[in-house]
């Protein structure tokens, strides 16, 4: 949770959200949806849509799979 908060504070201070921060936040949200104040419907959607596959990949697997895609989106 400390890393998520640090990423959020960095974004607030700089107006930037580096790809690694975005990936970590997404991974954390999928793995720990109860830490966030989402409406119940949003939690269910998150868990149904990507949560199970993200959790199964593990942190390193998720980062390696998603980072190239995020970098392509940011570069375009």
Low-confidence stretches: none
Largest sheet: none
Shape: globular
What's the order of the H and E elements?
A: HHHH
Overall pLDDT metric: 81
Measured by DSSP, the beta-strand proportion falls in: under 5%
Please describe what this structure looks like.
The protein is built from four helices and no strands. The protein has 76 residues and is mainly alpha-helical. The chain has one domain (2-75). It starts with a helix and ends with a helix.
Map the helices and strands:
Blueprint: H1 2-14, H2 19-31, H3 40-49, H4 51-75
Helix pairs in contact: 2-4
Task: Kindly list the characteristics that best describe this protein.
single chain; 76 residues
In short:
Helix content is 80%, strand content 0%. By secondary structure, it is an all-alpha fold.
